[in-house]
Amino acid sequence: MNIFEKSQAIKNQDLTATKNLENYLEVIEKDNSSINAFLEVNKESALTQAKEIDEKIKNGEDVGSLAGLIFGIKANINVEDSIISAASKTLENYQGSYDASVVKYIKENDGIIVGICNMDEFAAGSSTESSFFGATHNPAAPGHIPGGSSGGSAAAIAAGMCDIALGSDTGGSIRNPASHCGVIGFKPTYGAVSRQGLLDLSMSLDQIGPLANDISGIAMALDTIIRYDETECTSLNQEFPVFTEIVNQKPEKLQEDMKNMKVAYISQFKDVTDEHINEIIDESIDKIKQLGAEVVELNFNQIDLCLPTYYLINYVEFFSSTRKYDGRKYGYKIEDVCGEEVLRRIEIGSYISQQEFSGKYYKKALQARSLIRNEINKLLDGVDLIVGPTVPKLPHKIGEKLEPMEMYAYDVLTVIANLAGIPAGSMKAGEYNGIPVGLQLQAKPNDDAKIIKAMAALESLN
């Protein structure tokens, strides 16, 4: 069963919400101590909710679209009465006093939140090794990092600990771990999903999105969390398609629709990517051709501009967002207890935020972002999708020491979507030496459905 079929089985009483939850709790109890995907498990409250859902279904009462499905939530998204630490000692005792909008929508639709997932401290990382609570391990590639910063969410899916997980994506933090863990991760169009209740890393780049093992799970999550939120200033007030209707079409229809698509790959993406990954991506592009899509090669000459632009904006906005962690209202003063990477970003952000440097660095970075956005939108004007590798290199081994620029290099292909505000997703393309490799698909702003449709068509080939 895929996740949509499982949800139907629960509503038809072929499977109970309680049994679905118990199956996952069993895996968590057995494997979480070695994987460290979950920082907190809400066993009792989740079981209570599952039994209530089963009772409603048994009595013929209406239940929500997510009834009985099990969710993990990244530790920087507020869940009432859970410890929302952003994997930092700074907030190790901070208990969420309210639900983020996305969490509220999940609960309203009878989704069950089983626990809080590990992450890189304050989402500042690409490996989930910087968590104050210890590194997360990759269930799909033992001994290797799961990627980051939503590594706990991706590992929870890969390890079979929940149906769907939520992560946040500032420069690839959903897609990067999705690639390394061999699952599906999706970053929606900027503003499609409310960020209200997210502990921000970089407010002009952050986006909440789902991870799952199949495209139906992604679609069900998007149908729930994509909506206008009047409490959040970036929220888009517009119509989006019903994603479950797209993925539940017959495989023949999905594959037929691909014949009307024009898909581009970017030669510069291949230039910066490991040859073994390129070979696997080429196989995926061949599949897209076999589905009848027109595939063209395009050039994006601004690729060398993307990482410095992204990190300059990130440093300044992260410094600004962390000023509230001064030890008075929330936990400890961040500079006194945070890890090396968080401190690095605060110090650089503080330095380049000074009045005499803001024009030299931050304003120029904003100008560069406009250029990148314009160039990407220009490329997308003539095509439906851009496809290519999600991450340019294979995940390193846990504990292997990388220089900051080596760690940042994981992000070179994913930061583009955040800078441009466009939707992007990653799905498993194959494996090299047993390590998953992700295919990234990107589309115009608000064309999230085209990515979902293409992913569903590719999934239907398996």
Structure, described:
This protein is α/β, with parallel strands linked by helices and 462 residues long. It has two domains: 3-247, Amidase signature (AS) domain (Amidase signature (AS) enzymes, Alpha-Beta Complex), CATH 3.90.1300.10; 251-305 and 362-460, Amidase signature (AS) domain (Amidase signature (AS) enzymes, Alpha-Beta Complex), CATH 3.90.1300. 42% of the residues lie in helices and 13% in strands. The protein contains 19 helices and eleven strands. The protein has helices spanning 3-11, 17-35, 43-58, 101-108, 151-158, 175-181, 215-225, 243-247, 251-257, 267-271, 275-290, 303-321, 334-337, 340-353, 355-358, 362-381, 404-408, 415-420, 448-460; strands at residues 38-41, 70-74, 112-117, 164-168, 184-187, 208-212, 262-266, 294-298, 385-389, 424-432, 435-442. It has an eleven-stranded mixed sheet, with helices on both faces. A hairpin with a 2-residue loop joins strand 10 (424-432) and strand 11 (435-442). The longest helix is centred in the C-terminal third of the chain and has 20 residues, at 362-381. The protein is globular, with a radius of gyration of 21 Å. The model has no long low-confidence stretch (mean pLDDT 97).
Task: Give a nutshell description of this structure.
The protein is an alpha/beta fold. It has 19 helices and eleven strands. An eleven-stranded mixed β-sheet has the order 1-3-2-4-6-5-10-11-9-7-8, sandwiched between helices.
